[in-house]
TrEMBL record:
<dbReference type="InterPro" id="IPR013783">
    <property type="entry name" value="Ig-like_fold"/>
</dbReference>
<dbReference type="Pfam" id="PF13585">
    <property type="entry name" value="CHU_C"/>
</dbReference>
<feature type="domain" description="PKD">
    <location>
        <begin position="396"/>
        <end position="446"/>
    </location>
</feature>
<dbReference type="InterPro" id="IPR035986">
    <property type="entry name" value="PKD_dom_sf"/>
</dbReference>
<dbReference type="InterPro" id="IPR011044">
    <property type="entry name" value="Quino_amine_DH_bsu"/>
</dbReference>
<dbReference type="InterPro" id="IPR022409">
    <property type="entry name" value="PKD/Chitinase_dom"/>
</dbReference>
<dbReference type="InterPro" id="IPR026341">
    <property type="entry name" value="T9SS_type_B"/>
</dbReference>
<dbReference type="Pfam" id="PF18911">
    <property type="entry name" value="PKD_4"/>
</dbReference>
<protein>
    <recommendedName>
        <fullName>PKD domain-containing protein</fullName>
    </recommendedName>
</protein>
<dbReference type="InterPro" id="IPR000601">
    <property type="entry name" value="PKD_dom"/>
</dbReference>
């Protein structure tokens, strides 16, 4: 019997590695993707909503089992599992959860949950924990049987996992401060005693524990991004060696020095590392972050840092705070997430430089959206041992294994039943001619001389030979004033000319035919300057980067196409905020359409360079002009994607006044003065009064005024009612805060009421007052015909005190204590130890405990008031 059990365990271990466990992703705002077909297809049934981290896990056939954002767990029916809430992860953690199966028991799964940087601000760290899912329970839907078994009392937001050297266990790895912790997970469960490697930089500021950790699919390396935000932005991207036999991390290599990094990911053959980061910019003595970059490092290079290649520059977008996760899929492509309804994708990440084939926002999520996170998985699920070449229809596709010295036997299923017996092979390095274009699932079953057998999956995309035009002409405008036929061109604009409407066609550009055929010396497609008018260059057109057609591109520069300062337009700005202005771009487009009625190809830009290179086209919506921006539009007129004219429209701005569209007011002593906004050329009232900004009326009813300036015209309505006997309903005093607030609530809301809390010295239209200092206040409400008055008390406690006997701030006390009878205050240090206190019979606290001074530090307090309120907060003691 014991022999039978050993055989069953061995059989299970030999199939522990099947890759489809990562087939289903749930992430972002109810977003999801299914990879089982080899092409990611949107899922709309997910219940997850997370700012960053998440995880999902499937069985070896690619059927969903469960998913989580680190706090709640949903089963495959998208129902919360029994006991499936309150896990120790957080939706705001970089890698909020990671699932690892028990290598022996197919029903047991471990959910590892890292810590959360925000938890430290609340003095409630989660640490590093794991919970256990038993899939045999709840009718096969799964149940949480153990929750939040603690491994570390404090931790970072990082976790990754990889198959161990013998294939019958996993390493789960996290990092905290300057140490890596590798936990062994085998058939007996989770070993709570980690292998600790104290190595790498010391990260002891809890604001900086964000950022991803990944093990390479072959288990040999670890990459880690420390997202350094405090006390200032800094770069930290490290590469280490990892030993899958011992769990030891070694050989640190700092490879990033320009960006605040967040996401990291390896290519499937472990030869390339990708990282996402926001550029650090130093100017004017300050440090700030701007555009998001995705960069590639060649791990086979002699100098890995010097091999950096910028894969993509994202524009600096408002609201994009971090650079987003990178995650490999079972299709061996790498996906990138920032808040958007699409994911970006690196289609061939094993290839160097531009050949990695980045596609911006190339994966549609339907009506769902991503945030900053994607689900991490056991990195071994993405390992590849084969190099595949030749992906064109009709080509002989070659498969070259990378571990031939360790392979005892291999069986290939090319997923191409129409090819007959050729669909199978047991050759070490076979070839196959696929029967038609499409995505094929190639299954590779490998027996190794050392270690367990493994099953690998490769999705092979056989592309049709690109159906593109063989030659096109890219026409550009000439704006340097010389009309010499020389200009800067954005070569990527040629793709739309030759692609025959196929949005998946891309292109690389070359100076001559030989370079194009050999894919060397690619031209920088942005701001390429031609040498002569009519110059011929060549494009390598492709849908799959290794299946291409050569296209001849003639670069033609249009003479006399620079219109310069074409005209100016008067624009009514929607809003003025300080020196910034918001302008409707549609007005400029309509102006140009009137002058160029036969052209629908009118494009607007913020700069002449953008117009020339067709970058950052302005959408037909509001455009914000900053205080130092040029207040002008640059336009580009085209015909059949050929540049006809480039010019400039200056903007004469008339700012829309800040006024209420409808004002309700009341007669006061039988009359009321109605006042329109000042500074306009013409006023027309519904009472037939013309030319007057203000009028006096004596009757109830509705009055309108139209006021205008040049081409801008506006209308305001006044509703005159009888004055009411309004009263103060209540005054909300939110005190004992660092920023006290007062809100005055009236019995009846009136538009023309103004409020004051400084005894009527200053009035405002808002009934809400912020940052109110502790004290006694006379509240006034001016109703127009009468003024109401009440007195309020705003309580408060000082945010710091300095008990150094200098006569200033020597006692920490309660402001206006006489108005708070029978209060009691208890004071604690940061560890919760009671250090002092006082009540209404005492003046305050002198900073001593048992007549001995306590050290300078932050202290917490609990204030108990007679009315039943309990208030907590903190203050600083400085000696």
């Amino acid at each position: 019997m014991r022999g039978l059990i050993a055989i069953l365990i061995f059989l299970f271990v030999t199939n522990v590695f099947c890759q489809r466990e990562a087939s289903n992703w749930y992430f972002g705002t109810f977003a999801g993707l299914n990879f089982n077909s080899g092409t990611p297809e949107p899922l709309f049934d997910g219940q997850i909503r997370t700012a960053e981290g998440c995880e999902a896990f499937s069985d070896s056939d690619g059927n969903l089992l469960f998913y989580t954002e680190g706090n709640s767990v949903w089963n495959r029916f998208h129902e919360v599992m029994p006991n499936g809430v309150g896990l120790g992860g957080s939706f705001s953690t970089t890698q909020s959860a990671l699932v690892v199966p028990n290598p022996v028991n197919p029903n047991i799964y471990y959910i590892f949950t890292p810590d959360d940087a925000l938890a430290y601000k609340l003095n409630s760290p989660n640490g590093f924990n794991y919970s256990i899912v038993n899939m045999s329970l709840d009718g096969g839907r799964g149940d949480i049987t153990t929750k939040n078994a603690n491994l570390l009392t404090e931790g970072s937001e990082k976790v990754s996992a990889v198959l161990g050297s013998t294939g019958d266990f996993y390493w789960v790895i996290t990092q905290f401060r300057n140490s890596f912790y590798a936990y062994r997970v085998d058939g007996t469960g989770v070993n709570s005693t980690p292998v600790v490697s104290t190595i790498g930089p010391m990260i002891d500021n809890m604001d900086n524990i964000r950022g991803a950790l990944k093990v390479s699919p072959n288990g040999e390396r670890i990459a880690i991004a420390h997202t350094i935000l405090s006390p200032t932005y800094a770069s930290s991207l490290y590469l280490f060696d990892f030993d899958t036999s011992t769990g030891i991390v070694s050989n640190p290599n700092d490879i990033g020095d320009q960006r605040v990094y967040y996401g990291v990911e390896f290519s499937s053959d472990s030869s390339k590392l990708y990282a996402s980061g926001k550029n650090i910019e130093t100017s004017g003595g300050g440090v700030s972050l701007n555009e998001v970059n995705i960069v590639q490092f060649d791990l086979d290079a002699a100098n890995i840092t010097a091999s950096e290649y910028i894969v993509q520059r994202f524009p600096d977008e408002v609201g994009v705070e971090i650079s987003g996760a990178l995650q490999i899929g079972i299709d061996k492509k790498i996906y990138h997430a920032v808040p958007n309804s699409n994911l970006s994708v690196i289609r061939t990440p094993n290839l160097n430089g531009i050949n990695c084939d980045f596609r911006l926002y190339g994966v549609d999520l339907g009506p769902r959206s991503s945030t900053y996170g994607l689900p991490p998985f056991i990195q071994s699920l993405f390992e590849t041992i084969v190099t595949i070449e030749n992906f064109c229809e009709g080509d002989t596709t070659t498969f070259t294994t990378d571990s031939s010295g360790d392979i005892a036997s291999v069986n290939w299923d090319f997923g191409d039943p129409f090819s007959g017996t050729a669909n199978f092979s047991n050759n070490l390095n076979p070839t196959h001619v696929f029967s038609r274009p499409g995505v094929y699932t190639v299954t590779i079953e490998v027996d190794f001389l050392s270690g367990p057998s493994k099953t690998f999956i490769e999705f092979v995309e056989i592309a049709e030979i690109p159906n593109v035009l063989n030659a096109v002409t890219l026409v550009q405008c000439d704006i340097d004033g010389a009309d010499d036929g020389i200009s800067s061109l954005n070569l990527t604009e040629a793709i739309a000319l030759y692609a025959n409407g196929n949005p998946d066609i891309g292109g690389l550009f070359f100076d001559n035919l030989s370079d194009a055929q050999n894919n060397i010396n690619q031209l920088d497609p942005l701001a390429y300057e031609n040498t002569v008018n009519g110059q011929v260059i060549y494009a390598r057109a492709f849908e799959n980067a290794e299946c291409f057609t050569i296209v001849e591109i003639i670069l033609e520069v249009q003479p006399l196409s620079d219109l310069g300062l074409y005209d100016s337009i008067t624009v009514c700005a929607d809003e003025e905020v300080g020196l910034a202005l918001i302008v409707d771009v549609t007005l400029a487009w309509d102006f140009l359409k009137n002058d160029f009625p036969s052209s629908d190809e009118i494009y607007l830009f913020s700069s002449e360079e953008d117009a020339l290179l067709e970058l950052n086209e302005l959408p037909l919506e509001d455009k914000v002009f900053g205080p130092f921006d040029e207040r002008a539009f640059y336009f580009r007129i085209e015909e059949d994607n050929a540049c006809e004219f480039i010019g400039k429209l200056d903007i004469d701005l008339v700012v829309v006044p800040d006024f209420e569209n409808t004002v309700t007011t009341a007669l006061c002593n039988g009359e009321i003065e109605l006042m329109a906004p000042e500074g306009y050329d013409n006023y027309e009232w519904s009472t037939n009064v013309v030319g007057q900004q203000n009028i006096v009326v004596e009757e109830l009813g509705q009055y309108t005024v139209t006021f205008s300036n040049s081409v801008c015209e506006f209308e305001q309505t006044f509703i005159v009612e009888n004055s009411s006997e309004n009263k103060i309903k209540k005054i909300d005093v939110l005190d004992f805060r660092r920023n006290n607030e007062v809100r005055i609530n009236m019995e009846v809301e009136q538009d023309d009421v103004v409020y004051s809390i400084d005894a009527g010295n200053t009035f405002q239209s808002s009934n809400f007052f912020k940052n109110v200092q502790p004290g006694i206040y006379d509240v006034f409400v001016d109703l127009g015909c009468s003024i109401l008055k009440e007195t309020i008390i705003v309580g408060g406690l000082a945010t710091f005190f300095t008990p150094n006997s200098d006569g200033f701030n020597d006692i920490w006390t309660l402001s206006n204590a006489e108005f708070f009878p029978n209060f009691n205050i208890s004071i604690f240090d940061r560890y919760g130890k009671y250090v002092g206190g006082f009540n209404n019979a005492q003046i305050g606290w002198d900073g001593n405990l048992n007549s001995s001074p306590v050290p300078s530090d932050d202290y917490w307090y609990k204030l108990e008031l007679e009315e039943g309120r309990t208030i907590t907060g903190y203050f600083a003691l400085k000696r």
